[in-house]
């Protein structure tokens, strides 16, 4: 029986590839196990504070009434330059009244009587670098 030298090398090559893959797979399994253990113990990376964070939103009175006054107060992180509000397809700017405070007063417009129910009012905060964050508040008419 004749054995060709090339044949033995061909058979050995796939074994080397499998060994390399098995090493990568075991490394990934180990990394996943460590990550799962950290999650189970409650260890997580500390959250990085965002310069555009919206801390709280207040829309009063609750419920809103057509023609009646309303007050909006948005408290943000100190680095926020502007806050824009949006409800349905209507957008409005909330002016800055203090460091980290944006507030507006007005009246609920007459066309709001066409809409009844609870709606999501979305507020978008923007900082100097253009980074944005959003928060929502439920309003009822």
Can you characterise this structure?
The protein is of the alpha+beta class. The chain has two domains: 1-45; 54-140, Immunoglobulins (Immunoglobulin-like). The chain is built from one helix and eight strands; from the N terminus they run αββββββββ. It has a four-stranded antiparallel beta sheet, with no helix packed on it. A four-stranded antiparallel beta sheet has the order 4-3-7-8, with no helix packed on it. Strand 7 (118-127) and strand 8 form a beta hairpin. The longest helix has 37 residues, at 5-41. It starts with a helix and ends with a strand.
Explain the layout of strands and helices.
Blueprint: H1 5-41, E1 54-60, E2 69-76, E3 80-87, E4 90-94, E5 96-98, E6 101-107, E7 118-127, E8 132-140
């Amino acid at each position: 029986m004749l054995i060709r030298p090339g044949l033995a090398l061909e058979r050995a090559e796939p074994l080397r590839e499998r060994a390399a893959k098995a090493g990568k797979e075991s490394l990934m399994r180990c990394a996943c196990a460590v990550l799962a253990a950290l999650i189970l113990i409650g260890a997580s990376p500390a959250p990085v504070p965002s310069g555009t964070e919206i801390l709280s939103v207040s829309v009063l009175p609750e419920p809103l009434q057509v023609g009646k006054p309303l007050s909006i107060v948005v408290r943000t992180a100190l680095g926020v330059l502007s806050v824009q509000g949006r409800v349905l397809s209507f957008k409005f700017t909330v002016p800055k009244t203090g460091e980290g405070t944006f507030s507006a007063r007005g009246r609920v417009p007459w066309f709001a009587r066409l809409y009844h129910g609870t709606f999501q009012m979305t507020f978008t905060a923007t900082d100097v670098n253009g980074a944005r964050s959003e928060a929502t508040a439920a309003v009822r008419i």
